[in-house]
Write the structure tokens for this entry.
Amino acid sequence: MMYQKTAESYGLFQVVFADLTDHLACATFLLGKRKTPELTFEGVFRKGFRKILAQFRSELRQFEGKPSLHASLHALEKLCSEVEELAKWRNDRIHARVHLTKEGCMLYDWRTNAVLELRDEEIKKSIDLALRATVSLQSHTRELEGSLKLREELDGLFARMRNRKASTGLGRSEG
């Protein structure tokens, strides 16, 4: 029965979307914890998808103006727009009005009463998008996190150099 196949596909989509949300929360935490040491994973994770996405976008701003990260930032900004649309598609169906018939069920937008499609092909496209977004999120976030670690290491090296110069008297001009 087509109804069963569609319901199974939509259930799988929900699982994949939950995984995407978890990865987005992790990425948000990883990028934000250096800037905001009091940030906790639970504090990020407990927010809804929309708030996590907004916080993630905010964390991306710390990398603006860094040419070496332009490609990753562009990819992540595109990803944010795509998953925002995906979340809207999901939310419309999660919060839909349902009308059961002999042929199956019809979903209606609760605000407009418009029919909401829930076809197997559409769900599979949404699953693919969520999976691609998760992989892209992981790879590009690693690059940004690596940039933060490198910056911390370089800051530490320069701080040690300044401390050595100060303690040995090196670096002072003699005249």
Summary: The longest strand covers residues 97-101. The chain has one domain: 2-168. The helical segments are 2-32, 41-45, 49-60, 70-94, 120-168. The first helix runs from residue 2 to 32.
